[in-house]
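Contributing new complexes? Match this layout with adenosine-5'-triphosphate.
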Amino acid sequence: MIRIEIKKGPMEGQVFEFEGHDIFLFGRDEQHCHASIQEDPFVSRHHFLMEVNPPFSRLCDLGSRNGTFVNGKKHGGRVTFAKLESEGKVGPPVVDLCHGDVITAGKTVFQIFLEQKKPVTATMVFDRFPEDESDSPEPTGDIRRTITELPPPDLSQNIGRQTIQEIDEIAQVAGRATMVEGSGSGAFGSQVGQTGTTDQVASERRPGEFPVLDGYKFQEFLGAGGIGEVYLAHRSIDNSPVAVKFLRSRISVTRQARTDFLKGKSISGRLRHRNIVQSYGAGIVGNEFYFINEYCDGGPLAKLFRERKSNIQAKHIAVSLYLLLDGLAFAHEKGLVHRDLKPSNLLAAKRNNRWIPKISDFGLNKDFEKAGFSGLTTTGTNSGSLPYMPREVLTDYKYVNPASDVFSLAASFYRMITGRYPRGDQKGSDSLALILNGEVQPLRNHFPGFHSGLADVLDTSLQTECCERYPNAREMQNALRVVMNKEGWL
Ligand SMILES: Nc1ncnc2c1ncn2[C@@H]1O[C@H](COP(=O)(O)OP(=O)(O)OP(=O)(O)O)[C@@H](O)[C@H]1O
Ligand SMILES: [Mg+2]
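Output block (do not edit by hand):
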């Protein structure tokens, strides 16, 4: 658990505790900050943000006027920052925090405490993809909550019109895996998340080296994202292609944590829709999870659009968006929210000579993060998700809902159509401030000749206030259908 105590200032005595992944915002903006202070002129509207995921925590100064001090050293702040940083007078705006660190912003002094509640033990037991959902919570019908808190989908409805059965489910997922690695070290420099009980010694893959997994022949490295690697492999038994994604946990994974996580994945893994990348199974070797997914031979949808730029038409965009919305609405109606839609998670696969757009990584990275395995991702320098992230992810982390996916999907299409990000193109830590303060430019500001009806649907989906967007993918699809019907595209 991570505890933030306010030691000095107008809010002295207040305590904030975090058991899992969360975002803590400090500044003068009363509406959106988790701790706000109006009467201190040295505090900016959005002063700093702290991402916590015990045992890790990281501070990011949000371009505040006066900077944020960690143990007396100034970090971030506006004006001539680059010059001061190069002279070593000011630290970088993003800083990993340790137990006991003291943070000062204006007149307020915070102190960070890491408390280890229960001992963490490593496990080396390899297991089958769990089937049993008997202890899952009862469905409540309320879908405005995050994925892991949601009821399991009604599996009886998972078959029917919208299903595909192109590749048989793989029965033996885990098999006897032969790749093993140990635990990473915690940001607090302690042994949190590590034990000396690991049976086998860590062995990292060297660059260019393929993983080893019984039952699969690895053939090609397809790409790496913020926290994982994806390979094309062929299943030995029938030579069918699959994409295998590896995610390495930054902390040792307990048996319970592993079971809980894979059980959660077994729920979203059963999502069957032709516009959602099918998940065939998952397992863990040491601290590295692997996920066997449907292979999409077209790669990212954006790449296909780029390659055919000369004849890209509003109709093609609308049809792809419509199909993806069908997949997303299917998941929303089952109470699942993706939470990490971006162009690299929109893929294409050729079926019967036609490209089918598909959503990949449904809930995967965010669940991994929420389970505490990925450490800190929102404030990571290689997070490619920020330009597509709606504001509520920072201001109301626990309240992510289908309208958040509506924003991210529209932002991905905005990028594919205009080559620009909806809130502009600032890089690095400024991207976080941009999520809080940036204004979305109407799409036709960048592409005046673009189809106005389609642009309107995307602009509505990109409203900063959640309640001004379409509330879910089905509503967005309904609006798009009206435009497409008018044009005779459906
Ligand atoms: N099922 C798949 N079929 C074909 N290619 C895939 C598949 N899944 C991923 N890829 C390729 O691998 C690359 C890396 O995917 P990965 O999911 O690890 O990263 P990402 O989507 O960029 O970021 P993130 O880690 O946040 O999801 C993708 O850009 C894509 O090109
Ligand atoms: Mg991905």
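Reviewers usually confirm one structural detail per submission. For this one: The first helix runs from residue 81 to 86.
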